[in-house]
């Protein structure tokens, strides 16, 4: 009996992403308009129809502004017109601030006036009822027919700070955001977008573009990401999302950002079943499986934040600071206890607190005899009264190693502006000497001093552990961006998948034809035929009941192992058939499967495929047994993918060390495993419309160089294809 061995192919031929590019040029009238009409403009300050007009005046929008109000001659200094037909010239952008029943007619009139984009504030569409959903669908159809790009409905609007455009009723654009910001925001939720604008005001952060998409009748989160990926002013993209309508477009947008070298930080809500249901009802979008979103975001080189604070801190850090060039971090603190906390956070985040040499430690102690000098470096509180000595100590630390990150903790020493500015000057000098490092300061810092730090390229955090954690997260995201995207495997050829439920033999044969290694097996209708099959294969063998209706064969005693003689096979085949008839009298029985008994020494793993409603076929990998069933220790990837991505999948599960060899066991043939994952991904991509799921369990991986083999498989045809 020979063990099937999976040949490890060369890296599969790369294929380009979807050839239909996201049309970012069509968003120019939305975010860079030359003229704006506000339908439903109001003269009453604070009203939804008043705020965008007032903001256009506040931000000195340089184009033409046409408030539409039949009862007013002027709105916030702009001459009003009684109706859309009275607008004296063509318009680029229409802002619709009227109740839902009048929206369609307003859009038609604006399109007749040449509008190429519209922002619809109005609610009462897909987020509230089926009637509203139908009305929203009509808006979408109209937009496609007329070439009109629509934000909303049920949206808070958009802003382009540098262009003086605030087409929103968000109240947090006053006081004015400064031009020259670095952060682009795309948010499905308008209220959350407004909240973030308020956070940004408090943090001194400014936006390049601010986009809320609402119900996404037309413009989706993916469109906003793609636009910002190509926007020269935007250095970091913050995304808030509840779900995606079109997974392929979201992937394409994220890949555009990766190609442009722009970090994308995603706050994807709906992790729990309750949260997912709330998200779906809020934006009327498909939630999809949360683990799938997690995997796709990472696979596209973006970063998913776990909290608002983490998300916003990363946006702040990429706007004002530099991403670490490596994982080495220097910690400089006035408190030994806080130094321990910072070191803990560094190790948790995968950063390396490289210890200083004995010579450097001696030099530090010459400056301060009682300093903790290893790294973290505890300069003690007295050093903040001797800033020249403090600067010397910092330079001794930084001369030791090309640290990618430098984090300082000043405690409360800089809480008064005078002393705060003195300390800030030291760090400004450090920044000038180390222009490419991540430098962050933590502790009590007055606002004016914080702005001085940020102007010099130093980040400021209240909590020292947050400063360290942000460095670690930036390093991970920067590493993803710096890494060349994994080559994408070409999808395989579509397979002839039967419409009826497949038994194990049919499933294994399909997967074998797709490139997955499988044993030489035989199907036998009778015990005598099973004995003959065993003699052809070679002893010892396994006999299993063969039925598409009995998935857990061992539960009914439908598996017999290590059979060494023809008579043993006859008896086992008769027994498993009898047990199957008794346990599942209505099941379709296709006989028994006779397979070679595998040698000991392999690692059982599980490979699987599910077809996600948003992102399509997703490949799953995990170790067999409790790690998958109880701990959920699996890796996911969107199909198809290449060997590089497959190797990353194998390495990222918590149980990966089992495959590396533990307690004297040899390392597993992970190259054969990676090749099988690629083959499965190609099969899944080619047959996404024909399958619902695939389960290869167990997939046995032998020691290095000896291959791997699929021992059992289930393929569930797509709903509607299976025979009744």
Automatic annotation (TrEMBL):
InterPro entries, per database record: ATP-grasp (IPR011761), ATP_grasp_subdomain_1 (IPR013815), CoA-bd (IPR003781), NAD(P)-bd_dom_sf (IPR036291), Succ_CoA_lig_flav_dom (IPR032875), Succinyl-CoA_synth-like (IPR016102)
GO BP terms in the entry: tricarboxylic acid cycle
Coiled coil ranges: none
Keyword Hydrolase: no
Domain ATP-grasp, residue spans: 508-544
The organism's place on the tree of life at top rank: Bacteria
Sample GO molecular function, one term: metal ion binding
SUPFAM superfamilies: Glutathione synthetase ATP-binding domain-like, NAD(P)-binding Rossmann-fold domains, Succinyl-CoA synthetase domains
SMART domains in alphabetical order: CoA_binding
A family per Pfam: ATP-grasp_5
Keywords in alphabetical order: ATP-binding, Nucleotide-binding, Tricarboxylic acid cycle
Assigned protein family: In the N-terminal section; belongs to the acetate CoA ligase alpha subunit family.
Full protein name: CoA-binding protein
Species per Swiss-Prot/TrEMBL record: Xanthobacter tagetidis
């Amino acid at each position: 009996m020979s063990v099937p061995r999976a040949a490890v192919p060369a890296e599969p031929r790369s294929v380009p992403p979807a050839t239909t590019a996201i049309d970012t040029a069509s968003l120019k009238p939305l975010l860079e308009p030359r003229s704006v009409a506000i339908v439903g403009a109001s003269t009453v300050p604070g009203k939804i129809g008043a705020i965008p007009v007032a903001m256009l005046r506040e931000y000195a929008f340089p184009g033409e502004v046409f408030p539409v109000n039949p009862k007013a001659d002027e709105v916030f200094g702009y001459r009003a017109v009684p109706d859309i037909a009275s607008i004296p010239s063509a318009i680029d952008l229409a802002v619709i601030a009227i109740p839902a029943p009048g929206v369609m007619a307003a859009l038609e009139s604006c399109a007749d006036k040449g509008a190429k984009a519209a922002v619809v504030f109005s609610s009462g569409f897909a987020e509230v009822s089926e009637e509203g959903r139908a009305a929203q669908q009509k808006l979408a159809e109209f937009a496609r027919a007329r070439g009109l790009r629509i934000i909303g409905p049920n949206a808070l609007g958009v802003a382009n700070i540098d262009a003086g455009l605030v087409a929103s009723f968000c109240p947090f654009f006053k006081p004015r955001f400064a031009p020259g910001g670095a952060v682009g925001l795309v948010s499905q939720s308008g209220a959350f977008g407004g909240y973030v604008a308020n956070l940004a005001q408090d943090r001194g952060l400014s936006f390049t573009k601010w986009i809320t998409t609402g119900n996404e009748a037309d413009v989706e989160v993916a469109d906003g990401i793609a636009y910002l990926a190509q926007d020269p002013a935007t250095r970091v993209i913050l995304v808030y999302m509840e779900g995606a309508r079109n997974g392929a477009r979201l992937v394409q947008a994220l890949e555009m950002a990766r190609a442009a070298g722009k970090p994308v930080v995603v706050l994807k809500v709906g992790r729990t079943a309750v949260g997912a249901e709330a998200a779906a009802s809020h934006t009327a979008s498909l939630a999809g499986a949360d683990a799938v979103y997690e995997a796709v975001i990472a696979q596209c080189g973006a970063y998913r934040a776990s909290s608002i604070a983490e998300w916003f801190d990363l946006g702040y850090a990429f706007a004002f600071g530099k991403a670490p060039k490596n994982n080495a971090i220097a910690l400089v603190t006035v408190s030994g206890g806080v130094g321990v906390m910072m070191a803990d956070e560094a190790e948790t985040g995968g950063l390396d607190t490289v210890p200083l040499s004995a010579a450097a430690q001696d030099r530090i102690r010459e400056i301060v005899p009682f300093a903790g000098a290893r790294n973290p470096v505890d300069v003690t509180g007295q050093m903040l009264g001797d800033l020249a000595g403090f600067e010397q100590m910092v330079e001794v630390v930084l001369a030791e190693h090309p640290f990618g990150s430098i984090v300082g903790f000043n405690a409360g020493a800089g809480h008064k502006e005078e002393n705060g500015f003195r300390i800030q000057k030291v760090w400004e000098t450090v920044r000038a000497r180390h222009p490419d490092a991540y430098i962050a300061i933590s502790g009590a810092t007055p606002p004016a001093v914080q702005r001085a730090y940020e102007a010099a390229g130093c980040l400021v955090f209240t909590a020292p552990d947050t400063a360290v954690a942000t460095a670690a997260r930036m390093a991970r995201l920067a590493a993803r961006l710096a890494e060349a995207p994994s080559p994408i495997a070409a999808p395989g050829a579509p397979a002839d998948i039967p419409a009826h439920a497949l038994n194990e033999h049919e499933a294994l044969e399909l997967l074998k034809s797709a490139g997955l290694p499988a044993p030489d097996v035989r199907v036998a209708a009778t015990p005598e035929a099973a004995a003959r099959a065993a003699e052809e294969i070679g002893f010892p063998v396994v006999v299993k009941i063969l039925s598409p209706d009995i998935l857990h064969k061992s539960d009914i005693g439908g598996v017999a192992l290590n059979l060494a003689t023809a008579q043993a096979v006859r008896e086992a085949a008769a027994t498993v058939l009898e047990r199957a008839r008794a346990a599942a009298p209505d099941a379709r029985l296709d006989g028994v499967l006779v397979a070679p008994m595998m040698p000991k020494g392999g690692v059982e793993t599980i490979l699987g495929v599910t077809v996600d409603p948003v992102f399509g076929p997703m490949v799953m990998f995990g170790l067999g047994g409790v790690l998958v069933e109880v701990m959920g220790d699996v890796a996911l990837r969107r199909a198809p993918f290449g060997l590089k991505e497959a190797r990353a999948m194998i390495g990222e599960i918590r149980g990966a060390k089992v495959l590396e060899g533990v307690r004297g066991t040899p390392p597993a043939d992970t190259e054969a495993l990676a090749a099988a994952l690629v083959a499965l991904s190609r099969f899944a991509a080619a047959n996404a419309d024909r399958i619902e799921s695939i389960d290869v369990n167990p997939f046995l991986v032998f020691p290095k160089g000896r291959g791997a083999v699929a021992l059992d498989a289930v393929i569930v045809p797509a709903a509607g294809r299976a025979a009744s």
